[in-house]
Amino acid sequence: MLLAIHGLGSDRGSMRAYLEGAVPPGVQVLAPDLRAHGASPLVGEADDFALEALAREVADELVRVGDGSPVTIVGVSLGAAIGATIARSGRFPLDRVAFVRPALTDRSLPEHLGVFPVIGRLLGERAPARAWEELQRTGAWRAIAHVSPAHARGLELQLTQPRAAERRIRLLEAPRNAAYRPGELRLPVPSVVLASERDPIHPLHVAEAWRDELGAPMRVSPARDAGEEAMHAWFRQQLGSFLVGIR
Fold it and tell me: Tens digits of per-residue pLDDT, 214-241?
């Protein structure tokens, strides 16, 4: 069984870019939409976006569809933190875990995630087109654009996707989670950290901290600005190698 967990403001379909062709034949994949994402009907209050609450909802779905076999987890961005919480919970036998472009750290609302509450606030005050215009005038957006125009442009989707304003609480609350406490992240199964160059929302220093906490290898992809398809092809190749032998 493979559990694939998407990132903040994304949905289960985004996991295809990382996993298509990388999962061994016959392996069952569970890729849920997180609360307030994709086809999920749930929104909720601030407490519902605590990391433990999000992880519990995903884990409960895994209990519902799982067969008791060891679980492999692939988590992207926020999904990496949710995956780590599930892996450390002891609820499931584990096979291996891949943390892709981790974003959360050991403290609440790190600087590189400060743009998300800004977007959440704008969604509560403006129509999407006007909010996008205003976002591009903020220091938070400009700091991202200075490092990676591709990542800065990608933030427009956070404003324009269906039900974005209704679901803005996810952008206000999810970045406030700390992913781990120092010294408590190491896992008893093989793990890997996959990061990207020039990714201001998922910076290398965050991936390096995860690597050091896990005692795991870390590999770095080409930058998104050098070609998004090439970046995702690299992730698929790395994950395909890491997932060999899972059932």
Answer: 999 999 999 999 999 999 999 999 999 9
Q: Report if pTM > 0.90.
A: yes
Fold of 2-108+177-242: Rossmann fold (3.40.50)
Q: Which residues are within 8 A (CB) of 60 and not within 5 positions of it... i.e. 6 or more apart?
A: none
Please state the domain extents for the chain.
Answer: 2-108+177-242
Q: Two tokens at 139?
A: 């220091």
CB 41 within 8 A of CB 35: no
Beta partners for 96? 72
CA 92 to chain centre: 21
Which two structure tokens, joined as six digits, stand for 122?
């704008």
Contacts of 207 (CB under 8 A, 6+ apart): 99, 101, 102, 193, 194, 195, 218, 220
Q: Under DSSP, is residue 188 helix (H, G, I), strand (E, B) or coil?
A: coil
